[in-house]
Amino acid sequence: MDYIESKRRNDFTRKIALAAGATALFIFMLKWSSDISVSTKFSTHEPGVTHVLVTGGAGYIGSHAVLRLLKDSYRVTIVDNLSRGNMGAVKILQELHPEPGRLQFIYADLGDAAAVNKVFAENAFDAVMHFAAVAYVGESTAEPLRYYHNITSNTLLIVKTMAAHNVKTLIYSSTCATYGEPDKMPITEDTPQVPINPYGKAKKMAEDIILDFSKTSDMAVMILRYFNVIGSDPEGRLGEAPRPELRDQGRISGACFDAARGIIPGLKIRGTDYKTPDGTCVRDYIDVTDLIDAHVKALAHARPGKVGIYNVGTGRGSSVKEFVEACKKATGVNIKVEFLSRRPGDYAEVYSDPSKIKNELNWTAKYTNLEESLSIAWRWQKAHINGYDN
Ligand SMILES: NC(=O)c1ccc[n+]([C@@H]2O[C@H](COP(=O)([O-])OP(=O)(O)OC[C@H]3O[C@@H](n4cnc5c(N)ncnc54)[C@H](O)[C@@H]3O)[C@@H](O)[C@H]2O)c1
């Protein structure tokens, strides 16, 4: 009896041990296989490879940045919600670099904390270039809360998530709109920042968040304050293709091209009574190829615990009238021009002093001929009547 009882107990213990062993093996295999399935080149740091998260990489400037980063052998992840960007641009970049581990696209909204955290948890980034933003001065005066949310609050979330996941380098897209309308030209990085529209204010607040955080961390930070960006890839692969519904908000180059193509009847110049040589606004136009070169140099010079703030402009202002003349020459079309009253939130004259970026990052603008930059952009526009066709 004792013998039978003890045998039963032994059998039972053996079965339990077997079951426990099998369960442990099963859990181990499950974990191993799931690790394998999520482990990609993007999710692990690789010596000698710098993985850059490009927010807004489907947009105008972001897509040009991705093109250059891929050319320079960086690993790139684009995060974009396609609210304003073009999947067509992403497809072109993917076709140029189909090799595994070069480029991935993640559809996500940077206002969604859980989605942003997931992106950082599943990928091993070395640096972030934060381009994503809504970026129209006129729209910002009409929809200020949208701008504070999209620019300021989303930047706060990016910085917080970078810190949580130990991502150490941030290159931030800021703007000369943070300076407002200074008394003295040219604008240096020490010119007081007194923005006069919600777009400039939202960007200035985002800068402040980044700068205050940088005092408490060893994050490497580069803030680039762009002036007016024009042009496109000289090899004609990418261009500027804003949504048709944003045409009215438009930047001047887009409006010139639309007028040259007959999509709009002509150009509206808003404001002819500014205190400038010909009465129209004066701006510093920086070619996107030069702008992206400044980002690559900023990334190369970024150092832990250090902050760099740089104007990215040519140092030379051109009036709207001069711009329109250059556009007429570049397109070969005698664009009709209508002169209207000022647009709210605009300022008379803005041009940069780019000497700091020249001295510290060895960067200078090379594409400084308006007509040439516009001719390059026009070639793309003519060949892409419907933008990226999306
Ligand atoms: N274009 C200029 O002249 C200029 C001048 C100064 C500064 N900037 C700055 O450069 C950056 C890029 O501007 P751009 O001209 O390429 O604009 P863009 O509209 O072409 O690109 C912005 C991209 O960000 C994406 N995006 C916007 N909100 C998002 C969100 N919540 N989540 C995910 N993606 C989002 C859009 O879909 C778009 O692809 C912006 O930060 C802008 O403020 C631009």
From TrEMBL:
All residue ranges annotated as the NAD(P)-binding domain in the record: 53-368
Cofactor(s) listed in the protein's UniProt record: NAD(+)
GO BP, one annotated term: galactose metabolic process
Keywords linked to the UniProt accession: Carbohydrate metabolism, Isomerase, Membrane, NAD, Transmembrane, Transmembrane helix
Transmembrane segments: 12-32
Its EC number(s): 5.1.3.-
Domain of life: Eukaryota
Family affiliation: Belongs to the NAD(P)-dependent epimerase/dehydratase family.
Full protein name: UDP-glucose 4-epimerase
Organism: Handroanthus impetiginosus
